[in-house]
Amino acid sequence: MFGSGTVFRPLFPAERFVCLCEKEKKQMNTLFACLPCYNEEENIIPLTLGWLEQEEALKKEGFSLQVVAIDDKSTDSTKEKISQLEREHPQVHLVAHEKNMNLGGGVNTAVTYFLQHGVPGDLCVLMDGDNTHDPKYVHSMIQAVRRGADVVIASRYQGGAEVHGVPRHRLLLSDGAKLYYSLMLRVPKVKDYTCGYRAYTYQSLQRARKKYGDQLITQRSFACMMELLYKLYRSGCRFDEVPFSLRYDNKGGESKMRVLRTMKDSLKTAWQLRRGKI
Questions:
Q1: Which domains does the chain possess?
Q2: Is residue 174 predicted with pLDDT exceeding 50?
Q3: The pTM is what?
Q4: 3-state SS, one letter per residue, for the chain
């Protein structure tokens, strides 16, 4: 299902995939931190190390940690830096696209990889690879899952959230787009439709994949995040949000986002989703 553009290696030995009988329930679930990356040579090491710093706290919450970095045919040294991390830390794993597939391709690879390597009870935490999302918020996301959510969004629009380093004109565009998405899509308990920092239960993605097949993620641009969210909603998932601090000031290098094009794609995608066109 990855297609010809992806190369990956087994994350666990073969026995990891054997279904466990009632007497052999595993004692600890796995949290997969999935990081789609394109030209993030300045960001991928501090972001990955930030995840590794959470490992002991995650164990206390019943999760082992696996960091899966997905390189989207970067033209800088991102892939080499991930390989270095993989050699130094057994929890880190590289998935390499053989051709550039944009964010939609990276998210699709993350979802497919998680469904192939995970089991019910595991979590996939997907976030941007540019070091603007702090892994420390995963703990409040886990608590939201334990309260009954299938999908938890790290939201810029919940009380206590903060945004640092984002230009004012982009904040105004984001606020206007938020209102439009809320009117068009109306997903209960969701205010932030586009933030890429989310936690998904295994069962939620499994259910959505069963419903939509390889059409679960069709958008290649940043609009894929809204598409995935809405299709999860249409699959019966329950949502929750937790506040977080978006640290755009921590990002190294230039932004890859074309703001006006991204806004146009997202507005169009919301309209198509509401009308059942995608």
A1: 28-274 (3.90.550.10)
A2: yes
A3: 0.87
A4: CCCCCEECCCCCCHHHHCCCCHHHCCCCEEEEEEEEECCCCCCHHHHHHHHHCCHHHHHHCCEEEEEEEEECCCCCCHHHHHHHHHHHCCCEEEEEECCCCHHHHHHHHHHHHHHHHCCCCCEEEECCCCCCCCHHHHHHHHHHHHCCCCEEEEECCCCCCEEECCCHHHHHHHHHHHHHHHHHHCCCCCCCCCCCCEEEEHHHHHHHHHHHHHHCCCCCCCCHHHHHHHHHHHCCCCEEEEECEEEHHHCCCCCCCCHHHHHHHHHHHHHHHHCCCC
